[in-house]
Amino acid sequence: QSALTQPASVSGSPGQSITISCTGTSSDIGYWKYVAWYQQHPGKAPKLLIFDVSNRPSGVSYRFSGSKSGNTASLTISGLQAEDEADYYCTSYRSTSTYVFGTGTRVTVL
Amino acid sequence: EVQLVQSGAEVKKPGTTVKVSCKVSGYSFSDYYMHWVRQAPGKGLEWVGLVDPENGGTGYAEKFQGRLTITADTSTDTSYMELSSLTSDDTAVYFCATPASFATSGFVDYWGQGTLVIVSS
Tens digits of per-residue pLDDT, B55-112? Predict the structure, then answer.
């Protein structure tokens, strides 16, 4: 049961848009609509940004958006801000009440 | 207010067992799965497993099969995660987490404060 694959790091300048990919298989991302994204600042608990591929929980900025194509899900952060510097994780339902996280991506705001 | 309060840090010898608790309040414990997630020092999130407090049904990540037990006690609104045959690779912060509502389609939105488990001889 291997983790979903994410780039180790992504960077961008303030105001720019960046996209983080999350590659799985036909058994997880490719099969289910149950994909989510979390943001984690150092020493803090993760925060849910996106669920069910593209839905934002109440209170999450519109600058965060999600999508999926085949076995790959993506998180786009538009209008990059300094506070967006953090670690980001995707997660997907896999099967029989199991989930899997991605390897994580460190976002740096230049 | 939804709250998940975990037990304190643990230091364990290799080969032994650790049991971490997570007491909840502010929502109906039986209605939502309780997930356990761990994070080794400087590493990423790793999904460990879950329990359905209503019926005790569980789901475990394949790598923990055979040495992981997650339970839920609805009389005390507490979930437990027990991991046996500990090795240094199990050194991590262990989080309990729950959706606490149906608004996020089962994805966890509330987290405990984390319990540091150190495995060292």
Answer: 999 999 999 989 999 999 999 999 999 999 999 999 999 999 999 888 888 899 999 9
Check if the beta carbon of residue A87 is closer than 8 Å to that of residue A6: no
- Check CB contact of B55 with chain A, cutoff 8 Å: no
Question: Given CB atoms, is B80 within the 8 Å cutoff of chain A?
Answer: no
Asked if residue A24 has pLDDT above 70, the reply is yes
Q: Which of B113, B108, B67 is nearest to B90 (CA)?
A: B67
H or E segment and range at residue A99: strand A98-101
For residue B8, the 8-state DSSP code is P
Q: In this complex, is the C-beta atom of A9 within 8 Å of any C-beta atom belonging to chain B? A: no
First to last CA, chain A: 35
DSSP assignment, residue B88?
G
How near does any CA of chain A get to the CA of B16, in Å? 25
What is the reported pLDDT for A1?
Answer: 62
